[in-house]
């Protein structure tokens, strides 16, 4: 995103608000604006009366006010998003740009309002969590790999609701998925990292459960590949596949806890899984565990060579299909 924000050159009005049209290729009129208090606005122009649809679909947001106001001409309404604190302008700009991009193909006001309210609902959990920093490249890849494995689990072994419940998200527990008596830790490998796996703690490859698996995803960044997906596209795909309303809400909350929101920054890069390998963690598997560390040593991180894990490789179906 540019360091300049859409509101930088918009003056503060003495009445109502000052606007500047959004430079977007879509046909729906969109405007950046400021009100008399200098607060930043995004305005979506609608043709028709949508008071009832707005009342049913709107949700409260932390730090952003959402209003439906009458337009300047009869039969016109405006959906107005107002940022409470200008210190959060950069975050608000990212959220608004995501909505602007999503509205590009829309041609009718009912669709525009529906898309807008859907995005606003997706913002709610993230804003409540207040994790406004952008994910690092490594975090993006890690989350991408976990979500791909989520899709594999609900496609082949668990229900969608059980899979979302099994995903630990940002709970800071040892493994990424825990269900029944099984724990699974998922890792992403890209480029020069493809020969080793980074383990972030002495507890990550330890469990009291019967079965612990380490699953690696070798990723390829391939925007020209028809099967490649960005993080945003992968999240949208999962949301469309979950079906269960409670599972979808839980999924959104866990994404927010992780620090994810579908801002434009996550539209790239796009990845494909070049290879997935599953290892059973048991016996002499090369790992460090808390009980075996020298006295006084704690919070270790280390790397394991893939070659050293070769004897512990099992078929992917051992987890995805179960016994």
How would you summarize the topology of this molecule?
Blueprint: E1 17-21, E2 30-35, E3 40-47, H1 51-57, E4 64-70, E5 76-83, H2 89-103, H3 109-129, H4 137-156, H5 160-166, E6 177-179, E7 182-190, E8 196-199, E9 211-221, H6 231-242, H7 245-258, E10 271-280, E11 302-305, E12 313-314, H8 317-320
Parallel strand pairs: 7-9
Antiparallel strand pairs: 1-2, 2-3, 3-5, 4-5, 6-7, 8-11, 9-10, 10-12
What does this structure look like?
A hairpin with a 5-residue loop joins strand 4 and strand 5. This protein starts with 16 loop residues before the first strand and ends with a helix. The chain has helices at residues 51-57, 89-103, 109-129, 137-156, 160-166, 231-242, 245-258, 317-320; strands at residues 17-21, 30-35, 40-47, 64-70, 76-83, 177-179, 182-190, 196-199, 211-221, 271-280, 302-305, 313-314. The model has no long low-confidence stretch (mean pLDDT 89). With 323 residues, it is an alpha+beta fold. 31% of the residues lie in helices and 24% in strands. The longest helix is centred in the middle third of the chain and has 21 residues, at 109-129.
Q: What is this structure, in a nutshell?
A:
This protein is α+β, with helices and mostly antiparallel strands and 323 residues long. It has 8 helices and 12 strands.
Helix-strand category: alpha+beta
Shape: elongated
Biggest sheet character? 5 strands, antiparallel
Oligomer: single chain
Write down the domain tally.
2
Measured between the Cα atoms of the first and last residue, the distance is: 48 Å
State the helix count.
Answer: 8
Estimate the helix proportion, in percent: 25-40%
Number of strand elements: 12
Flag low-confidence runs. Answer: none
Strand content: 15-25%
Biggest sheet: strands side by side, in what order?
1-2-3-5-4
What's the alpha carbon Rg, rounded to whole Å? 23 Å
Average pLDDT confidence is 89
Order of helices and strands: EEEHEEHHHHEEEEHHEEEH
């Amino acid at each position: 995103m540019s360091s300049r924000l859409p509101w930088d050159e918009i003056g503060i009005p003495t009445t109502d608000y000052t606007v500047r049209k959004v430079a977007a290729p879509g046909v729906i009129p969109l405007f950046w604006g400021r009100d008399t208090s200098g607060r930043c606005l995004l305005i979506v122009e609608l043709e028709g009366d949508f008071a009832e649809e707005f009342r049913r679909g709107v949700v409260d947001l932390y730090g952003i006010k959402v209003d439906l106001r009458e337009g300047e001409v009869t039969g016109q309404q405006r959906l107005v998003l107002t940022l409470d604190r200008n210190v959060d302008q950069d975050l608000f700009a990212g959220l608004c740009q995501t909505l602007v991009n999503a509205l590009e193909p829309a041609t009718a006001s009912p669709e525009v309002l529906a898309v807008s309210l859907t995005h606003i609902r997706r913002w709610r959990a993230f804003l409540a969590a207040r994790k406004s920093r952008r994910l690092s490249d490594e975090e993006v890849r890690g989350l991408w790999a976990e979500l791909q494995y989520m899709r594999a689990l609900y496609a082949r072994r668990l229900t969608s609701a059980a899979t979302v419940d099994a995903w630990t998200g940002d709970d800071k527990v040892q493994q990424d998925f825990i269900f029944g008596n099984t724990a699974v830790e998922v890792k992403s490998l890209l480029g020069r990292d493809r020969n080793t796996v980074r383990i972030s703690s002495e507890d990550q490859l330890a469990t009291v459960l019967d079965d612990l698996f380490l699953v690696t995803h070798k990723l390829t960044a391939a925007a020209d590949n028809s099967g490649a997906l960005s993080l945003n596209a992968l999240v949208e795909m999962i949301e469309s596949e979950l079906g269960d309303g409670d599972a979808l809400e839980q999924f959104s909350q866990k994404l927010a806890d992780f620090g994810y929101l579908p801002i434009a920054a996550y539209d790239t890069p796009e990845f494909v899984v070049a290879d997935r390998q599953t290892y059973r963690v048991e016996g002499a598997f090369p790992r460090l565990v808390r009980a075996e560390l020298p006295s006084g040593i704690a919070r270790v991180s280390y790397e394991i060579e893939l070659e050293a894990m070769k004897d512990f490789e099992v078929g992917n179906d051992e987890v995805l299909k179960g016994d």
